[in-house]
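Example 9 (inverse folding). The structure is encoded as follows.
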């Protein structure tokens, strides 16, 4: 039987290229073809329906359960896409566990098993690739500082992460330009232009190497577009079709709003439900098995799966949806039995054809079922990406609208001149960009579809659809990643609503923290003890004196602990060889204040400074005197109470402090002090922080 060579011309025999495919140095082409084990196993079991069902469901269940169990046993931070956490890290919040090297290994193994599950679970890899790139960049940065013996610079680390986030998107789609732009839109509130070329250089190298692997693996003859299309260039669309592309943008925007609302609601409901919350807390693999069993049963090809083209892979979904032919015209000539997928790329559309339903019925049924299946899949606690599924979902919306327009206007929209039929594949391009852009609040998806398909003929209607969809979604819903941040309660600053002028009227004095623990420049041992016992801040403001609260600088907590360790406690025995005198100003390096706010600074300005400079806390002064402080908690609370930010993002406690544990009994603390009058590392703990909840230590023994 003559079988076309993948990537070759129809009718080209495989024997004609046997020297190229079998005698080249490319490793194990036959073994690599069998890595699609799910489809191969389903075809090899024969016509026994029970065996087919077991092969279709047990395979993804086993892989998904292993992915969840393995990744969660290594580190609980390897689940999901990782983009919400990376987005939080890029704002200046320290989440070191998400960039740990052990998380890298867990993510790689878990993602491999997730992708091997096939399109049954319908999950992608964009988010995990971004997370993996960020972890690799963080590790390389640490290696650089250790080899060069330099001080670890947080600004250099941030530059590495900015470049890494572009690599993840660019490698998946082989699109370096849109990869950089998409990463900036999705993960950065502010972007330094000096990092622009770094991102492009890293993204280009990553995309080049990734696409080069496709050539080495005999998948392509040269570096080409990932989803290469054959859409017409001479007359891609009629000018009157612009109206339908705008309608497509409206549809994608409305569906995107519904998707974001339901996805955020389900994530919260799963955590609040007693049964699912218990499974996710103690038995995550069991929850994964149950969800995958449901998804696999619905997509079983002899069942409902035959109405959803469930035998196609993720790449074949997009290849079929971007077909330049009109399926409604091809249906009368379709054979009664479709060829197995993967034999002829131009015959993939037959997977969408069913004798008992029209093309419109299968596309509509796919959209209806995948809407809640996509949302349910996002609750799985395994490494996975969510961009590719919504990309395919949007392409299906566009394909359905394009086939409808082609049915209504079979000769095109023009009544005069040469007929120019409607190309539904162009609507699939616009739908993929519009829906994925609306869900992620990105415009660069318009360029992404052009780079991934190598087609620029529809760039203007695609941009129009993306803009319309974004205008609707950004008005009513936070993005997919912002919604995940809300549910996970990550310490991320929400964006201020652009049209709310109230943010300019709300001033810092209305929401700042007024009870600030400050130290006098001439303070001694007891004053430092009181300050460390009163709060767990990383730095403390230093004023001129108790009677003159003029702010002169800040001192770190580590320096205060060192000050206490080098001085004698007032109640210590006289035999100790430690300094008894000395003030804070004489023994500690007081850092000058580089930035401070006025009580009349607006919320909008304070929010902008926190985002731009990645600040954690700023002190507020009136005529040079300390009157308060503002941290990220106050900024979030001030915007939420005044209704000028997106949905409130909780997380943390008041003043950014950790919850105070129950008080220790005075006798235990005092007994420790009597046994070790001089504060030591064992007494103060690994972080240099005294026991919390005790009464003031200067009162001990009274």
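The amino acid assigned to each position is listed next.
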């Amino acid at each position: 039987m003559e079988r076309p060579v993948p990537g070759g011309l129809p009718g080209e025999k495989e024997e004609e290229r046997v020297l190229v495919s079998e005698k080249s140095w490319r490793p194990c082409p036959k073994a690599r073809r069998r890595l699609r084990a799910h489809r191969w196993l389903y075809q090899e079991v024969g016509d026994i329906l029970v065996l087919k069902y077991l092969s279709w469901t047990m395979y993804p269940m086993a892989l998904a359960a292993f992915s969840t169990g393995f990744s969660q046993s290594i580190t609980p931070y390897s689940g999901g896409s990782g983009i919400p956490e990376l987005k939080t890290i890029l704002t200046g919040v320290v989440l070191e566990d998400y960039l740990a090297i052990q998380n890298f290994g867990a993510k790689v193994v878990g993602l491999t098993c997730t992708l091997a599950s096939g399109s049954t679970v319908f999950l992608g890899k964009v988010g995990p690739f971004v997370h993996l790139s960020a972890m690799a960049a963080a590790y390389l940065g640490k290696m650089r500082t250790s080899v060069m013996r330099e001080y670890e610079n947080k600004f250099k680390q941030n530059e590495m992460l900015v470049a890494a986030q572009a690599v993840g998107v660019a490698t998946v789609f082989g699109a370096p330009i849109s990869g950089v732009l998409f990463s900036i839109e999705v993960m950065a509130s502010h972007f330094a232009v000096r990092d622009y070329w770094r991102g492009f250089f890293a993204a280009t190298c990553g995309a080049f190497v990734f696409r080069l692997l496709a050539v080495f693996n005999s998948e392509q003859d040269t570096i080409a577009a990932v989803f290469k299309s054959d859409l017409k260039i001479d007359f891609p669309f009629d000018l009157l079709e612009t109206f339908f592309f705008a309608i497509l943008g409206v549809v994608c925007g409305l569906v995107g709003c519904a998707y974001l609302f339901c996805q955020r609601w389900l994530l919260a409901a799963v955590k609040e439900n007693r049964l699912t919350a218990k499974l996710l807390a103690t038995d995550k693999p069991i929850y994964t098995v149950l969800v995958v069993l449901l998804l696999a049963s619905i997509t079983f090809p002899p069942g409902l799966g035959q109405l959803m083209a469930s035998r196609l892979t993720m790449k074949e979904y997009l290849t079929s949806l971007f077909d330049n032919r009109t399926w409604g015209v091809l249906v009368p000539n379709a054979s009664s039995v479709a060829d197995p997928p993967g034999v002829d790329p131009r015959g993939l559309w037959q997977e969408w054809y069913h004798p008992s339903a029209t093309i419109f019925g299968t596309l509509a049924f796919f959209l209806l079922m995948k809407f809640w299946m996509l949302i349910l899949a996002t609750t799985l606690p395994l490494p996975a990406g969510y961009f590719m599924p919504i990309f395919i979902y949007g392409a299906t919306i566009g394909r359905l609208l394009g086939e409808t327009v082609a049915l209504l206007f079979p000769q095109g929209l023009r009544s005069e001149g040469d007929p120019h039929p409607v190309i539904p594949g162009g609507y699939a391009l616009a739908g993929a960009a519009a829906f994925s852009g609306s869900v992620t609040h990105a415009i660069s998806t318009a360029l992404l579809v052009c780079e991934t398909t190598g087609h620029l003929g529809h760039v203007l209607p695609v941009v129009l659809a993306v803009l319309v969809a974004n205008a609707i979604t950004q008005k009513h819903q936070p993005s997919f990643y912002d919604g995940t941040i809300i549910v996970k309660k990550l310490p991320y600053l929400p964006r201020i609503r652009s049209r709310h002028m109230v943010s300019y009227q709300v001033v810092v004095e209305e929401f700042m923290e007024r009870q600030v623990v400050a130290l006098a420049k001439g303070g001694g041992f007891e004053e430092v003890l009181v300050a460390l016992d009163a709060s767990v801040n990383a730095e403390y403001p230093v004023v001129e004196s108790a009677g003159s609260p003029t702010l002169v600088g800040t001192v770190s907590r580590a320096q205060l602990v060192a000050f206490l360790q080098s001085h004698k406690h007032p109640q210590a025995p006289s035999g100790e060889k430690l300094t008894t005198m000395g003030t804070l100003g004489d023994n500690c390096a007081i850092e000058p204040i580089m930035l401070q706010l006025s009580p009349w600074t607006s919320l909008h300005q304070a929010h902008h400074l926190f985002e731009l400079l990645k600040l954690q806390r700023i002190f507020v002064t009136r005529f040079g005197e300390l009157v308060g402080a503002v941290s990220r908690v106050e900024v979030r609370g001030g915007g939420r109470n005044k209704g000028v930010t997106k949905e409130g993002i909780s997380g943390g406690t008041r003043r950014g402090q950790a919850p105070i544990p129950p008080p220790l009994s005075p006798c235990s603390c005092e007994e420790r002090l009597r046994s070790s009058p001089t504060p030591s590392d064992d007494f103060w703990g690994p972080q240099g922080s005294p026991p919390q909840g005790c009464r003031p230590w200067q009162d001990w023994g009274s």
